[in-house]
Write a structure and sequence with these properties.
- Its EC number is 1.2.1.50.
- By secondary structure, the protein is of the alpha/beta class.
- The chain folds into two domains: 42-270 and 454-469, Aldehyde Dehydrogenase, Chain A, domain 1 (3-Layer(aba) Sandwich); 273-440, Aldehyde Dehydrogenase, Chain A, domain 2, CATH 3.40.309.10.
- 34% of the residues lie in helices and 21% in strands.
- The strands form four sheets. It has a seven-stranded mixed β-sheet with strand order 3-2-10-9-8-11-12, with helices on both faces.
- Helix 13 links the parallel strand 18 and strand 19 (437-440).
Length: 473
């Protein structure tokens, strides 16, 4: 859509970054006007030029001959500059993002600073080592020989990737850029409407470190409206890209799927729901109860429940009276955490109406809190049939945690578990149900460096594995 005099006021400008070059705003008639999905806030981008986003396959990836050790050093310096409070690029980025995003600026600043800390030499080295049995394959053709004496060489070749980015945190941009660099990819980042700023801000910071560095030349970040066939039919082709790395809701993933075919694959971080499982041991003593409630509230409020690891359903082993006690205490801690976060978003109308309806069904449900965004807890004997979000938790009473396992499926990402000594008894059943991660209650947010994510080792999936077979001697 081209801006005209009839368009609403444009509040923020969102430049592009194309293969090392910042593409800024043209005059108003030449800019394209878009609106953020959640808030409907207008933002303006340059007109999209598709030709500049595609590198011909005859052109070797810029990072091909750059050692991983050098890439890591560059990422570490980038992380230090992102975290620097005097970084005007990141300051401006978060201020603009706060206009289009549901989270307040204060929380966005914290998320960016936290993500920048992951650009640490030991962290990045561990990530590579956990994803690749022999990390040398990223830098060279590694010689192999099988039991018959046949000789070959194998390389994890830098892929051509389109990243369909999530918009829940500026940390997603930092993480995706780092991963794209570590696998030496040629990267095109499709920014989300809720955050058409962070990816470009990180790349601009990289360009300040070294504008000619191969990492900088291997990166592009632009925005188009998801589902725009005029763009996606042109770009989502195997002659241009190997894989699309897609984050997002079901509609976003479904949209990408239609373009898949031989030579163009999907690496999907699709919609997930995380839960908690709390045993009756939580009621052993008052201090144990208080600690368990605090851990549960921490998992619910991870990134103000915008993260996929944030718990939405707490399956609680106990009586009706114990469930009510737990739900009331959980509501109190959620309200406190919400107040500390300065997030004042009310629930959307559909969710408000569903919760208000449940509050009138006293026999089957109890509701603590208000739908004004300060926190709500619903106690029930079956999970509610809607997706709790925006500081909303559903405490589901069960006679035994065995009864909770049937609610685990392939969309269950993280399971926060208490008591800790019972986790090993359930992990096989949770994996069989489809869950991808079980952690101690209260530890949904932090993750062991280099562990699988969404049931896979992502970097291993990103690369283009190539074999050179050289017969026998």
């Amino acid at each position: 859509m081209t801006a005209t005099q009839n368009e609403p006021q444009i509040l923020v400008d969102a430049p592009f970054f194309v293969r090392g070059t910042l593409v800024g705003m043209a005059s108003a008639p030449d800019g394209d006007v878009h609106h953020s999905r959640e808030l409907g806030v207008g933002f303006r981008t340059p007109q999209l030029q598709l030709d500049g986003l595609v590198a011909p396959r005859t052109e070797l990836p810029p990072l091909l001959d750059t050692p991983v050790a050098e890439i890591i050093d560059f990422l570490v310096e980038t992380g230090q500059r992102i975290a620097d409070p005097s970084n005007a690029i990141m300051q401006e980025c978060v201020e603009r993002m706060a206009a289009t995003h549901v989270l307040p600026a204060e929380l966005l600043f914290k998320q960016a600073a936290y993500a920048a800390q992951t650009l640490d030499k030991q962290t990045l080295t561990t990530l590579v080592e956990r994803n690749f049995p022999d990390p040398r394959a990223l830098d060279e053709w590694v010689p192999q020989r099988d039991h018959t004496g046949r000789r070959s060489f194998v390389r994890a070749f830098g892929p051509r990737l389109v990243h369909v980015m999530p918009g829940n945190s500026p940390g997603a941009a930092i993480k995706s850029i780092a991963e794209g660099a570590l696998v030496k990819a040629v990267n095109l980042f499709k920014m989300p409407s809720s955050d058409p700023f962070s990816t470009v801000a990180v790349l601009r910071t990289m360009a300040e470190v070294d504008p000619g560095h191969p990492i900088v030349r291997a990166m592009s970040a632009v925005y188009w409206r998801g589902g725009d066939a005029s763009v996606e039919q042109a770009l989502y082709r195997p002659q241009y890209f190997d894989k699309v790395v897609a984050w997002g809701g079901g509609s976003a993933i479904d949209n990408v799927i239609q373009y898949l075919g031989p030579g163009f694959q999907l690496v999907s971080f699709d919609p997930k729901t995380s839960i908690s499982m709390v045993g009756r041991e939580a009621f052993a003593a008052d201090d144990v109860f208080a600690q368990t409630v605090d851990w549960a509230s921490s998992d619910v409020m991870t990134l103000n429940q915008e993260a996929c690891v944030a718990s939405r359903f707490i399956f609680l082993e106990g009586t009706d009276q114990e469930a009510d006690r737990f739900a009331a205490a959980l509501h109190g801690r959620i309200v406190e955490r919400a107040a500390d976060s300065s997030d004042r978003r009310p629930l959307d109308r559909d969710l408000r109406e569903q919760i208000e309806t449940l509050s009138m069904l006293d026999d089957d449900y109890r509701v603590w809190g208000r739908t004004d965004g300060t926190g709500v807890v619903i106690r029930s004997d079956e999970p509610v049939d809607f997706h709790p979000v925006n500081k909303t938790a559903n405490v589901v009473r069960v006679d035994s945690l065995d009864d909770a396992v049937k609610y685990v499926n392939v969309a269950t990402q993280t399971v926060g578990f208490y008591p800790f000594h019972r986790m090993a008894d359930y992990r096989d059943r949770l994996a069989s149900g489809g869950a991808q991660r079980v952690v101690r209650l209260g530890e949904a947010g932090p993750s062991t460096i280099g562990n699988p994510h969404d049931a896979m080792y992502p970097l291993h999936r990103f690369v283009h594995w190539m074999a050179h077979e050289d017969g026998t001697e």
